[in-house]
Amino acid sequence: MYTRRKDIAGYTLIEVLVTITIAGILSGIAIPSFTSIIRSNQLTTYANDLVTAFNFARSESVKRGVQLTIRRKGLSNGQWEGGWDIFVDLNGNEFLDDTNSTPCESNTNGSLKEDCLLKTYEALPDGYTLRIGTSTYKDYAAYLPSGLSKVVVSDIFRLCNGTDNTLSRAIKINAIGRTQVSIGTSSCP
């Protein structure tokens, strides 16, 4: 008669195979959901970067008492995924620097005598698009010393990853320059 030793513990081959099968099924269900969560969080981060830039420009324009401009760095009108710069815009046009080695030079009374780059935002990763509608925000947005938008037109930036509209973000700029973010847009490029 064979007696089984009680001090030997372990798993049978069937128990290991069943455990591996269950783990595989759960991974197959969880990974697509996890990927969707990561994509959604990335879109939220990039939308927050744009909102932060607009809020920073608005508050700094009031604080400094001068116009601040946010200018896209992309190659085509309305395409902001190439990044953007925020600068003090003394003369209300393009960024002008006298190209010497001293940035943001001041007069003797402390006022700036040239445009001054305050912040720059890098391009979005490949596959992401940030587009604007048909307003004058195609190339830039500017805030006056009062904190109001230079352009009194509202428009919507569309932040997308691919052509899936469900996770995209719509960043609305109203006529006075305030921003509001919502999930989903009517179209992605």
Q: Please, how many helices? A: 1
Largest sheet: 4 strands, antiparallel
Mean pLDDT: 83
**Could you tell me how far the N terminus lies from the C terminus, measured between alpha carbons in angstroms?**
77 Å
Rough outline: elongated
CATH hierarchy: architecture of one domain: 3-Layer(bab) Sandwich
Q: Mind telling me the CATH class of one domain?
A: Alpha Beta
Number of strands: 8
SS-derived structural category: alpha+beta
Arrangement of strands in the largest sheet: 3-2-1-5
Q: Fill in the CATH topology of one domain.
A: minor pseudopilin epsh fold
Task: Offer a quick outline of the entry.
The protein is of the alpha+beta class and 189 residues long. It is 28% helix and 22% strand.
Topology:
Elements: H1 13-64, E1 68-72, E2 84-88, E3 116-121, E4 128-132, E5 140-143, E6 155-161, E7 169-173, E8 179-183
Antiparallel strand pairs: 1-2, 1-5, 2-3, 4-6, 6-7, 7-8
What does this structure look like?
This protein has one helix at residues 13-64; strands at residues 68-72, 84-88, 116-121, 128-132, 140-143, 155-161, 169-173, 179-183. By secondary structure, the chain is an alpha+beta fold. It has a domain at 13-126 and 139-147: minor pseudopilin epsh fold. The strands form two sheets. The protein has a four-stranded antiparallel beta sheet with strand order 3-2-1-5, with helices on one face. A four-stranded antiparallel beta sheet has the order 4-6-7-8, covered by helices on one side.
List keywords for this structure.
elongated; four-stranded antiparallel sheet; 189 residues; 1 helix; minor pseudopilin epsh fold; 28% helix
